[in-house]
Amino acid sequence: MCPSRVSVSSSSGRLTPFDALALALRAVQTSIQQSQKEPDDMLLASTALLAPFEGVVRKNGVPTKLHVDGLAAILLARSSAYPVTQLARDIVDFNACESSIMACILNRPSPFESISPAYFANDNMGSAGSDQAQLKALGTELFIRLPRLLMLVRSLRLNWLSVGQPLADALHLSDSLLALQDQQAEQRLLQQIEVQSSLGLKADCPRHSHLHFASVQDYEALAYYWQSRLCLLRVRSRLQDNLSSRRIQTNYEMDPSLIFQSCPQSYQKEIPRLAMNLLMCSKYTETLQLRKQIRLSAHAAVIVWGVMNESAFPWAHESEVEKSSVLAMLLRRVNMALEAHPDLSAEDMNLAADMFAGGEAQGRFVELFVS
After folding, report:
1. Do 312 and 327 fall into the same domain?
2. CA-to-CA separations, 8 to 21, 132, 351, in angstroms, rounded
3. Which residues neighbour 106 within 8 Å (Cβ) at sequence distance 6 or greater?
4. Which residue of 85, 102, 185, 293 has the fewest C-beta atoms within 10 A of its own C-beta?
């Protein structure tokens, strides 16, 4: 795991990324030896700090899935009696959402899918900031569990001849995920967020308004909750559309209980609302500094792009020019976030939006996000 001899500096006397990585590997090895191979927080933290190093070496700064898999493996190795520390929760919080997007692309479960819910559940109910903590916990759990649902939906798309149990599994999982919401906490936290409008434009016109968050924690709590839930609703809607189409083509007689479960009508109004909320976060996302936050904003832009091209937006009929302007803004955000050269095209965005609704993982968004 660690080279027998580590050169700690280059000829210029400065640490290179490879030197730093070698030192970090030695630190992890020392941590394992000192902890008697127990999965303690020091081992977890050492592994977490290693995660970005290969990205630095490869000049993209993206944590590899192997390092993130290692974090999840350490947490899974802990006994149920092992205390859930704040450090461990923070490490899960930092890695869970982005790694789940990677899992969706790679068509595999989230590496954190099987860890104890205590690592991302809200334990601050009734305390100051509990609404923020509640929404952050719900958003994180949705992100962690969404890759499994996408796997089921993709398997159904490829093999509709045997839909029985896989269909039931997909509907059951999507129903359980749809229950992960707290409208009261969302409304209470929203009341603390200032809605600002551009000069000379109507403040009550959503496309001319933006949300000003008091803290990045408030932003992450609301935006990641909206983002993950919107992704879920798109997958559920796509599942229903595919089922309806299949029944018409084949006269397939579905179990009545599944027909009832698969009806998403009560959620149709929520889709444009969540997309609008994420659009109103656009100006705030320009201030984000962490690579993780920037990459998550690219995912959000793709999801909103999909909504705008698949459903009737509340204000889309007012002006096609306005819609084109918003789509161009979303495309710019993704190009900047992923440092695309050459820029992604509208077709690249369409492929990415389709992928996160249950379509095949393909296109330049996939290449840039996982490279």
Report:
1. yes
2. 10, 43, 45
3. 65, 361, 370
4. 85
Same domain, 215 and 295: yes
CA distance 215 to 354: 32
Residue type, position 204, single letter:
D
Residue among 231, 278, 240, 234 at smallest CA distance from 259? 240
Banded pLDDT at 47 (limits 50, 70, 90): confident
Same domain membership, residue 154 and residue 55: no
Same-domain check for residues 117 and 127:
no
CB within 8 Å of 224: residues ≥ 6 apart: 97, 136, 139, 140, 143, 296
Beta-bridge partner residues of 209:
197
- Assess if residue 330 is contained within a domain: yes
Q: Into how many domains does the chain fold?
A: 2
pTM, rounded to two decimals: 0.84
The mean pLDDT of 248-256, rounded to a whole number, is 55
User: Where a domain ends, among 93, 121, 149?
Assistant: 121
More confident residue, 81 or 309: 309
